[in-house]
Amino acid sequence: MSQATLHDLHRPLGSTGLLVSPLGLGTVKLGRDQGVKYPNGFRIPDDDEARRLLRLTRELGINLIDTAPAYGRSEERLGPLLRGQRQEWVIVSKVGEEFVDGLSHHDFSAAHTRFSIERSLKRLETDFIDLVLVHSDGNDLVILNECEVYQTLAELKREGKIRGFGFSGKTVDGGLKALEQGDCAMITYNLNDQAERPVIDYAAAHGKAILVKKALASGHACLSPGVDPVRASFELLFAQPGVASAIVGTINPLHLAHNVATVAQVLRSR
């Protein structure tokens, strides 16, 4: 039997004009193994392993790749690894959070936002980033109402350095506020946590994009015996018309292929 892929299942990322696969590859595990909340430990893949993973990702029909300055060396590794392939990927990165010497700190100022974007462009070896999200520290409304990060991202979009911007937050109010002026909200939505459902509904009604993080509850999803938690998770997600894509952070090729086959099955059975 041929391997299931997502090539013919790409969908609009809100009103950005971008088409994305319903699954995206999260790359925190390419750059950082400290301070990450995964149920099992892991080893950061070397360049050959990372290259094979990215090649498989493309072969499976995934074109969305998610990174961030806070993901350790992820961005600086992706630049060379994706060299010559820029047009084949929709790249999502972030601003606002830095991870240095095992500790996170946040900066939502205009100066740091610009510095962060210029550094990401250099690391990723590109002259534009498709989508940039604010990496919230949890104080969503304070960041959006009192900091300069969102207006600075809007300026960078006008300058052509980014194609879209949005917010990776932790609250319903933050997600709703972020979508008023932004293109996308990245939210938590899974079998264990559906509190941010109103943000999905708002996005669907206003042509905005939703990316889902922790779609598989970071591997913690628990169901009754005999129920495939991956399938149940994706059935929940893709029942929502506002959801464009779910980000999965696996470095295991078998997990990735299983996730793709499951999503393809779920979407084709609709």
From TrEMBL:
Gene Ontology molecular-function annotations: oxidoreductase activity
Domain NADP-dependent oxidoreductase: 22-219
One Pfam family, short name: Aldo_ket_red
Coiled coil: none
Gene3D superfamilies: NADP-dependent oxidoreductase domain
Regions that span the bilayer: none
Protein name, UniProt field: Aldo/keto reductase
Protein species of origin: Pseudomonas fluorescens HK44
Lineage: Bacteria, Pseudomonadati, Pseudomonadota, Gammaproteobacteria, Pseudomonadales
